[in-house]
Amino acid sequence: MMTMRESISLALFEEMRRDERVMVLGQDIGTNGGVFRVTDGLIEEFGPDRVYDTPISEAAIIGGSVGLAVAGMVPVPEIQFMGFSLQAFHQIAGPLSRMRYRSRGRFECPVTVRMPFGGNVNSPELHSDSFDALYTHIPGLKVVVPSTAADAKGLLAASIRDPNPVLFLEPLRGYRGIRDDVPEGDYVTLLGKARVARPGTDVTIITWGYMVKTATRAAEQVELEDGVSVGVLDLRSLCPLDEEAIAQAVERTGRVIVVEEAAFTGSFAAEIVATIQEQSFYSLEAPVRRVTGYDIPMPNAYQEHYVPDEKRIIKAIRETLDA
Question: Which of 90, 127, 137, 305 is an active site residue?
Answer without folding.
Answer: 127
